[in-house]
């Protein structure tokens, strides 16, 4: 009887009232315990309303049916293919839509609808992977922010590959604690490169100088990642080796910084020897065993003596419990003294920069008591 009255009233009713009544009919269908006859009539009426000229009518039906697992599948499917403001509620919430239906919808719908699918909670690995593969930057950014979405390592990698240059996607990725460290490092390197190129283009800075600054920043960021995520150090070093970033310059910077755990793990990665054996050889840098280890790692012989001298310096400094900027400056100066200073682009230049950086840090530490605000008695 309710449905019959609705059908008699609807053709002449204004759109706003018709929309409100359509939403009420959808809720009655789900929750009011209609008789079998009225239930079937209500479903037929809702199906008929899919062709209503007013999108507000269709939107009210979508909003009422979207959260329910008992909504008619054919109605939900039709609503999912409607205009964005009608489709979005069911794309975000409807449990009636399965993975295959969502996957088929992604390439046919626009940015808003893709974003709605990306916001579903939960979202399966399969659907997440399709969004990462063909989704717009907005959809991918929402996907990354959706903690209910299951993202595999491959999905993370594809998101970074396709949209790593987009600030919204990149920033969302870097906020994820479960982002694989290799992808995090690649994003930081890409970001540094973009900033460097911007500096060259916008401010007419010397390109070689900017390149050197960018490389230094990337190396510092990589070593910081290793420090804050020691449990993933092996994965990071494997990525660095495979991508050609496990360079002599990076290892020399780690040496001067005193990142000896990084040095040890790097030699394990480069030589395949066990960690305990590598640790023993690094502890005696002036013996033949270290020379053999260094040679097996495939590092240039021109840096062998500076490397050994730096390691020896850290052994002495740690025995004396000396650390910080004075220690780094001392190590850099000792390594520099063993370096071929004629090679202006080699280790000598790196050691000079690190001596200067450590000296600046020492100076700042010395001046800090004079630059701190002083409290005066009232």
Structure keywords:
378 residues; mainly alpha; 22 helices; elongated
Write the layout of secondary structure elements.
Blueprint: H1 2-9, H2 15-31, H3 36-49, H4 55-65, H5 73-80, H6 84-93, H7 99-105, H8 111-118, H9 125-134, H10 137-145, H11 153-163, H12 167-175, H13 181-203, H14 207-228, H15 233-242, H16 248-257, H17 260-271, H18 275-282, H19 288-296, H20 304-319, H21 324-337, H22 347-371
Helix pairs in contact: 1-3, 2-3, 2-4, 4-6, 6-8, 7-9, 8-10, 9-11, 10-12, 11-12, 13-14, 15-17, 16-17, 16-22, 17-18, 20-21, 21-22
Description:
This protein has 378 residues and is mainly alpha-helical. The protein folds into 4 domains: 1-82, no CATH class; 98-176; 180-232; 247-364, no CATH class. Helices cover 72% and strands 0% of the residues. Helix 11 runs antiparallel to helix 12, helix 13 packs antiparallel against helix 14 (207-228) and helix 16 (248-257) runs parallel beside helix 22 (347-371). The chain is elongated. 36% of the residues are buried.
């Amino acid at each position: 009887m309710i449905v019959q009255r609705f059908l008699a009233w609807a053709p002449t009713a204004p759109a706003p009232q018709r929309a409100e009544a359509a939403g009420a009919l959808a809720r009655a269908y789900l929750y009011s315990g209609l008789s079998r006859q009225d239930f079937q009539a209500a479903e037929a009426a809702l199906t008929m309303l899919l062709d209503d000229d007013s999108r507000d009518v269709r939107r009210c039906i979508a909003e009422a049916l979207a959260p329910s697992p008992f909504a008619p599948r054919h109605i939900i499917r039709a609503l999912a293919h409607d205009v964005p403001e009608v489709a979005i509620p069911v794309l975000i919430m409807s449990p009636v839509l399965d993975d295959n239906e969502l996957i088929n919808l992604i390439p046919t719908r626009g940015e808003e609808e893709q974003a709605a699918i990306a916001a579903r909670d939960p979202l399966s690995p399969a659907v997440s992977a399709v969004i990462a593969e063909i989704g717009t930057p907005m959809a991918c950014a929402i996907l990354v922010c959706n903690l209910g979405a299951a993202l595999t390592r491959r999905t993370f990698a594809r998101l970074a590959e396709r949209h790593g240059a987009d600030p919204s996607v990149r920033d969302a990725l870097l906020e994820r604690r479960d982002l694989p460290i290799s992808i995090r490092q690649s994003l930081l390197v890409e970001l540094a490169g973009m900033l460097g190129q911007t500096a060259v283009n916008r401010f007419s800075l010397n390109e070689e100088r900017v390149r050197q600054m960018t490389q230094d920043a990337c190396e510092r960021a990589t070593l910081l990642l290793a420090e804050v995520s020691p449990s993933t150090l092996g994965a990071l070093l494997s990525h660095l080796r495979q991508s050609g970033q496990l360079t002599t310059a990076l290892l020399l910077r780690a040496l001067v910084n005193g990142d000896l755990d990084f040095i040890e793990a790097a030699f394990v990665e480069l030589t395949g020897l066990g960690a305990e054996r590598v640790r023993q050889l690094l502890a005696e840098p002036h013996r033949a065993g270290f020379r053999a280890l260094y040679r097996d790692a495939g590092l240039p012989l021109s840096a062998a003596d500076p490397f050994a001298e730096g390691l020896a310096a850290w052994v002495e400094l740690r025995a004396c419990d000396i650390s910080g900027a004075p220690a780094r400056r001392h190590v850099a100066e000792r390594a520099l003294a063993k370096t071929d200073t004629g090679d202006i682009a080699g280790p000598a230049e790196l050691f000079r920069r690190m001596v200067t950086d450590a000296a600046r840090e020492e100076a700042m530490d010395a001046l800090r008591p004079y630059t701190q605000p002083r409290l005066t008695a009232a």
